[in-house]
Amino acid sequence: MTEGNKMIENEPKDSVAEKSEMQSEDKRLEDTEEEKKENGESKGNLQEQSSEAAEEPEFEPPEGGWGWVVMLAAMWCNGAVFGIQNAFGILFVSLLKEFGSEEDEDLRFKTAWVGSLSMGMIFFCSPIVSVFTDLLGCRITAVGGAAVGLVGLLASSFVTSLGPLYFTYGIVFACGCSFAYQPSLVILGHYFKKRLGLVNGIVTAGSSAFTVTLPLLLSGLLEKVGLQNTMRVLSILMFILMLASLTYTPLLPSPHKASGSGRRCPSMKQVFNVNIWKSLGYRIWAFGVPAALYGYFVPYVHLMKHVEERFGKDANKEVLLMCIGVTSGVGRLIFGRVADYVQGVNKVYLQVSSFLVIGVMSMMIPLCNIFGGLIAVCLLMGLFDGCFICIMAPIAFELVGSKDVSQAIGFLLGMMSVPMTVGPPIAGFLRDRLGSYDVAFYLAGIPPIIGGAVLCLIPWVEARRKRREAEEALRRGDASDKMLDCEKNSLSQGDATQTKALDSESVL
Is the pTM of this model over 0.70? Predict the structure, then answer.
């Protein structure tokens, strides 16, 4: 009886122990299942986020439509801004007669500062213009710039001495041109991608068309109505530019609006984009191009006076600017289309070839004792000048991408302001001291050759960067694959141990 009672008393104790062990195992299994679910949900969320990011369609420009109207407006912008700047050689001769005297030893040096300061300020303001373009948009920036340029050109028509022209023509008019010009390059990327090279060629050909026609127009106006009324006629071009800029309807959101920060005033990092300077290829480009431009603007300012001194005042000097303008327009159309077929940053080689030819042709100007030879030099110079101009925007898109292209172009043009401003006055100083332009043109051909040689490094640097990025991507891919394998192995081992435990419990 006592043994039977003991067995009866022990049975509930064993059953209670077994039940408690089974409950703890059930809890452990439930915890592991919950962990799996949580891990699965987190992985699923990550996969969903990555798939959503992958599914977000990349912006595709319409490749036409309203973009053709925008292209024509941008074409007028390039023509009005750089047509007037390139025809400054005609105004330069008139300014010497109007405000100067032959007794002044530094006459050409002082007068050249008007045109070189104007051209330099167009590029000097470009970094600021790029910030305004990002904050206010292409349309508001361009319309405001055209209005300021109109005021500056009108004010220049009322001055009676050379000093005020430094401010009205060299600063106010030039700053307005800068604010009107750069948005015309940025807005094209909203409407074109595959045809961007061709469209840039057509747009920049506008300055060639104006360079061809304005010298003849200015020569006739200066003879009939004088310098002041001629500048008032040129103001009409800026008024039309102000109306044309109203067509700049943006398709891409502003970078600051797209950031989603929710603040009215963007941070300094958003305003001044420093990411573009992280690219070694862009840094080389941003310093190599300005290095090549110390002699670039010299022929546009001093070629007309050089022709008068070499071939007489009756020489048809306007023909030379026409030759540069015609072949520059042809070059922009040809090389703009060629750029669409050149892969990636290899477009830089087109710019390198243009610098080499421009440098050699500048050195050839003093050697031409026949007017026909000078015409041949100007034809070649204009052809490759068109190549250099039309290829700038496509190269910027290749180096930094479409999101950062506004400030990339802006900073490049800002760096270009120093050589564009300094070159012509130095050439005028050499002429005043040496009595001829020969040395000035020889020296003007050296910087384009050196700058072109520096730009040859960009394709090699970009190829090395892409190889490095591909290797890092492969390493990350291998590491992620190993992590996935480890997770799978750990999960499979955990499942195996759980099944073994369950089997052992079921046997017991």
Answer: no
